[in-house]
Amino acid sequence: MAYGMTTYALGNLIGCTGEAVCRWERGICTPELKYFKTIERIAKEKGITIAELNETPELICDDYELFCNSGYSKVIRSIRKQCGMLQGEFAKELDVSRASLANWEQGRFIPSRDNYNILKKYAEERGLSLDES
After folding, report:
1. Which of 6, 100, 1 is nearest to 57 (CA)?
2. Do residues 67 and 56 lie in contact, with contact meaning Cβ atoms separated by under 8 Å?
3. What is the C-alpha to C-alpha distance for residues 25 and 34, in angstroms, rounded to an integer?
4. 13-66: per-residue pLDDT in tens?
5. What's the pTM value of the predicted model, to 2 decimals?
6. Half-sphere exposure for 33 (CA within 13 Å, toward CB)
7. Cα separation, 119 vs 112, whole angstroms
8. Measured between alpha carbons, how far is 128 from 122 in angstroms, rounded to an integer?
9. Which single residue of 89, 96, 104, 123 could bond 128 by disulfide (Cβ 3.0 to 4.6 Å)?
10. How far apart are CA 122 and CA 109, in angstroms?
């Protein structure tokens, strides 16, 4: 976030996939040592230490974690229905596959932080809130 990059762009910079970065952000797994060293170097360029990253979660200033832990599937479904769209139409608007949207709406998979930000922007542009269920 300090670089204003998507997880996919950061993955390219680090030398891994955006999906790997998403898993790290969600705490599913941790980076291998070879990626950790690159992350440390990149963070130092922004004046951020690894200790700060570990000890100060407020460096990431968004409500992604809250969204993921508070019934996100109902929220996504509600926004889609308020927009009067079928899953395929809504997925196209968010630039994701229909299968991904269906998995989010059924609570099988959590959207990445990048997808969350796209959804949040989409909702805000239409006067909708991600807090609604």
Report:
1. 1
2. no
3. 17
4. 888 988 888 888 777 777 888 888 888 888 888 777 777 666 655 555 567 777
5. 0.58
6. 0
7. 10
8. 8
9. 123
10. 20
